[in-house]
Amino acid sequence: MSDFTQMLERLLLENPLGEAAIEFALAQMVKLPSGPFKVQTTYGLRVPMRDRVALIADHFAPVGLASGPAVLIRTPYGRSGPGRSLAETYARAFATHGYHVLNQDVRGRFDSEGEFVAFVHEDDDGCDTLAWMARQPWCNGAIGMWGASYLGYVQWAAAASHAPSLKALLPIITHSHLMEYHAHGFPLDLLLRWMFQLAAMDDPTLSAWERLRRINSGSLQDRFLRDAFMHLPMQTADALAIGKPDGLFREMSEAGPQHPVWQQVDHRDAVGSAPPAAFISGWYDLFLDGLLEDYAAQAAADRHPRLVVGPWHHMDYGYMAVAFNEGLRWFATHLRHEPSSPDARPVRLYVMGANRWREFDQWPPRSQPLRLYLHGNGAAKTGRLFVDQAPAGAAPDAYLYDPADPTPSLGGPKLSDDAGSVDNRPLERRKDVLVFSSIPLREDVEFVGPVQLDLYVKSSLPTADFFGRLCVVDRSGRSTNICEGIYRVEAGRGEAQPDGSVHITVSLSATAYRVKAGQRIRLLVASGAHPRFARNLGVPGNQALATEMLAAQQTVFHDAAHPSALVLPVLQE
In this predicted structure, what is the pLDDT of residue 417? Predict the structure, then answer.
């Protein structure tokens, strides 16, 4: 249970009003700085869309400022109401700093009319809302957008319309192609948890506390979703997760990546021409990789974006005050045309391990690749990582991957409060996990940027997954995960070798970490992380429709002809 959830539980036990305690706790947790303006709120504005559907919004106006720059927040999680959304908290706070803020329920959610179909209507509805705002007497024609996760995605959908009034974006823990079909592993955990959380928000029979628990608590979600995660065919797991079919989930899982909706809601082509964005994310966030791609696209297009990445996961409330303060500075520059700090550098990163913030001129910062070669017996947990020393004639590692007992995901990027860094020793004890460790470091090593894993592999089946996780082991023996990734081997994927093995490169995402002297670097290799990535059933075709499972004998090579290695981007000062 997170610190935030524990605090709410304590307040609710102490306060019989319940929802009032939640509202108070939210305000105390995020600690947003208040500006000089008092705020006047107009509730329940009807904003017309092109198809005559009305989306309902609230206007937060700085008292005494008849017209000025505006901020748009669009949310599917409820624009107001204790225990449902933080959107109103942020809307009111921005208004105290002199911004007219429109806080809107997206189509089909809470008070807004129409049918909610995730992601599908956000481009047109965002465009129409921006046009409506630009016509209001309180808007001077300069609008910024702000928000996290889905509230960040809708910014890219709106930006795709090239609305002239949209001048600045602040997408947080999100990216422009949020609804993405993952070629290397279907995001089963993410989709089922998100549907479960939405269902909890919409259930009028739940108390405010129970609603909050179902939205945040990973252990509680695991109990409710255990059968759904293991259900076959995967396409009908929605009925176990939320008690009814979800049409979009079923339709798109059946069609696979060829479904036109995947392309319709992908707005990455608009990123380079969109207004300048300040990107906020966390090293354990689900959507970090896509956000870094979006940042790179804006940087390449000379949009002069900003990037801030902290030690957070998706459900971590620690980023909220940071994101708000970044928003104040970003909107001051791009909506009010105030000069930015001459000493500000565009990239600000939290270096874990060192536990400090650092600033850079670019992402990724300049680095030198450090190759740590796999040696020894990873199946016996005695595998070794050696610098610049490829193994000679070492025997390969072999293990059985059984989808009936899939290698589980543990912590890491996850849509619940038990995400992030955890002790990996329970995972490392499994027979289907290989473990490779360095000797204790003689001096600190700091690496910042994308981490990769070069592997030479073979499977007894035509399709197989290979998962890698980078960890650091402290002096007590605790093994803490840093970053991870997965690669699905299928026909045509990877570099085929003469002996029948395949050379693959697994992207382990990006990080910033200092491993200290006396600590060890550890690599875990497995064939899954279920349910974060839906288990590979070992059968051909669309596995969302399959009910058969086949166990696979997996082989990982590490010898002179197969120099498998972990590649770290060691920072160059």
Answer: 92
